[in-house]
Specification:
The complex is a heterodimer of chains A (114) and B (413).
Chain A: E1 2-9, H1 18-34, E2 39-43, E3 51-56, E4 59-64, E5 73-81, H2 85-94, E6 102-107
Antiparallel strand pairs in A: 1-5, 1-6, 2-5, 3-4
Chain B: H1 9-31, H2 34-55, H3 61-80, H4 86-93, H5 107-117, H6 124-135, H7 140-147, H8 151-167, H9 177-200, H10 206-227, H11 230-243, H12 269-282, H13 290-303, H14 312-325, H15 329-341, H16 345-359, H17 363-375, H18 379-391, H19 396-411
Helix pairs in contact in B: 1-2, 1-3, 1-5, 2-3, 3-4, 5-6, 5-10, 6-7, 6-8, 6-9, 7-8, 9-10, 9-11, 10-11, 11-12, 11-13, 12-13, 13-14, 14-15, 15-16, 15-17, 16-17, 17-18, 18-19
Classes of the chains: A alpha+beta (114), B mainly alpha (413).
Chain lengths: 114, 413
């Protein structure tokens, strides 16, 4: 069962400096590797670098940012393969940014018949 | 089938409701999906309603229902997977009649179902509604009424909860040691909410409501048997002690009788003793949880020979300890009311005025305030507090009670 873990936090409001945070993320990922858990993921450039794209009547439209009102922004994600929501939540809670941000756990839709 | 006496419609319905949690839990354990389990159980109930009135109750109704429901799921899955070898599915899914009803179908199956229904990835109201539906067998209509929402809104809420359990993969198991204590606390909260529902809304269908209280107590019993932790025992003690007074809360004319005026001989001594024993068993470890403290308060009432001899100073101490754990305005209200009963209504009135902004829309606040104001001769104030309380009361029995109190107050003017 695959889950998408979306990492939300206030940009520029990490509770440690950038280098420390990166090393904490590295430690988190090596813990996943040690546990033999299949995962992938990335950090994202700030939301000020985002572009919103639509296709309306065959015409591509581009706007700057989404610039949502919410304080917390999507800053990165993992896709992780686990048995159930309890396991997914336990790993989500270990993501360094969970200390000051929020991790949204979303089941990835499966199109296979079970 | 025993053919000696044919069951009435009521007998059958009671039997079916009693069976719900056990059968659904066994089905989920075997087949893994709550919706499938519920649908199959509904079909088995429909079949029971056809067959039992003329053939009588089976010797083992739960085993009977489980067998019928299992067959339905197997048939359904066979249709869904036409390529599978039917025999193989039969082998995999069909375990006929290995149901030991004497062991009540292994209580742990229901416990897993409780933990699934009370999973923290669902909001609290969905947890409570789902437990009432799936474990206790209440109808959507009854649950909708309890939460004061429309039936279709409740139906949607329940469907969403079940879909989330399936799609996000909420496990069907007793949580591991690491999570257990927090998950137990959440399950206790849901059981307590169910009990409160049975306690507060006793308009119509008395029997059903008492069933609900019994069901909450059975759930608490399961929980306490599993973990033997003091707080689960505390919850069970609290439910036993509170329920011991259930029958004396209404008089012969179906009018509300407050604790002060209840006929103490009507209290259920078996439940009182069970509650006291449970409480004594956890006392050596100290009263550390909110249910244990509330049970201790309820025990003081249960052990008092009369209203006058109630140990108010002890109750005040316990409410203060409870307030440390749970600093809410409703706990403070109970503390203040106990202070009034201990012979200090003036101090209590000051406390009540302080609480007003936070409890302005809380019916028990105005009902308590009215009674205390009346007790110290503040007739006009009491009268207007009764008005406030009445405006916030939906329950007919409570309404009649408040009106009669208000009438007495005006009459004595």
């Amino acid at each position: 069962m695959k889950y998408l873990l979306l990492i939300y936090s206030e940009e520029g409001k990490d509770d440690v400096d950038f280098e420390t945070l990166i090393s904490q993320y590295e430690a988190f990922e090596s813990e996943l590797e040690m546990a033999n858990i299949e995962f992938s993921g990335n950090a994202l450039e700030p939301v000020t670098m985002a572009t919103s794209v639509k296709n309306r009547a065959g015409k591509m439209q581009m706007t700057d940012g989404p610039f949502a009102e919410t304080k917390e922004q999507l800053g990165g994600y993992y896709v992780i393969d686990l048995d159930d929501i309890d396991e997914a939540s336990q790993w989500a809670a270990k993501i360094p940014s969970a200390r000051y941000g929020t991790i949204e756990v979303r089941p990835i839709m499966s199109f296979e018949q079970d | 089938m025993s053919k000696t006496k044919l069951p009435s419609q009521n007998d059958i319905e009671r039997e079916l409701r009693r069976a719900t949690g056990k059968v659904v839990a066994a089905l989920v354990a075997r087949f893994g999906d709550i919706q499938d389990a519920e649908d199959a159980f509904q079909d088995a109930c429909a079949k029971a309603l056809q067959v039992w009135p003329t053939k009588g109750l089976p010797n083992k109704p739960i085993a009977w229902l489980l067998t019928v429901a299992q067959r339905r799921i197997i048939d359904q899955r066979r249709r869904r997977k036409p390529n599978d070898n039917a025999h193989e599915i039969h082998q995999r899914w069909y375990v006929p009649n290995q149901i030991d009803e004497a062991s009540e179908l292994v209580p742990d199956e229901r416990l897993k179902l409780i933990f699934t229904c009370c999973h923290p990835c669902l909001d609290k109201q969905s947890q409570t509604a789902l437990t009432l539906k799936v474990v206790c067998g209440l109808s959507v209509r009854e649950i909708a009424r309890a939460f004061v929402v429309s039936e279709s809104a409740m139906q949607q809420r329940l469907q969403r909860a079940k879909a989330k359990i399936r799609i996000a993969k909420v496990p069907y198991k007793v949580p591991n040691a690491e999570e257990l204590s927090e998950r137990l606390e959440q399950a206790r909260e849901v059981i307590y909410l169910i009990y409160n529902e049975s306690y507060s809304s006793f308009e119509g269908g008395d029997l059903t409501r008492e069933d609900l209280a019994n069901e909450a107590r059975r759930l608490a019993e399961l929980l306490s048997a599993l973990n033997r932790d003091p707080e689960s025992a505390g919850l069970l003690a609290l439910l036993c002690l509170n329920q011991s007074r259930h029958k004396s809360r209404l008089d012969n004319n179906n009018e509300l009788v407050t604790l002060k005026d209840q006929d103490r001989r009507q209290w259920d001594t078996r439940l009182i003793n069970q509650g006291l024993e449970l409480l004594n068993s956890v006392l050596p470890k100290g009263l550390t949880g909110r249910y244990q403290l509330q049970a201790a308060i309820s025990a003081i009432y249960a052990e008092s020979q009369s209203w006058q001899s109630t140990d108010w100073p002890q109750i005040i101490l316990l409410y203060k300890a409870l307030y440390q754990l749970e600093p809410t305005p409703t706990v403070e209200l109970n503390l203040v009311v106990a202070i009034a009963h201990s012979g200090n209504p003036k101090i209590a009135l000051n406390g009540l005025k302080r609480l007003q902004p936070r409890l302005d829309n809380y019916q028990p606040y105005w009902a308590s305030r009215a009674a205390i104001e009346a007790s110290v001769g503040l007739k006009d104030e009491a009268d207007s507090s009764y008005e406030q309380a009445l405006a916030l009361t939906k329950n007919q029995i409570e309404k009649r009670f408040l009106e009669s109190q208000q009438y007495q107050l005006r009459d004595g003017k």
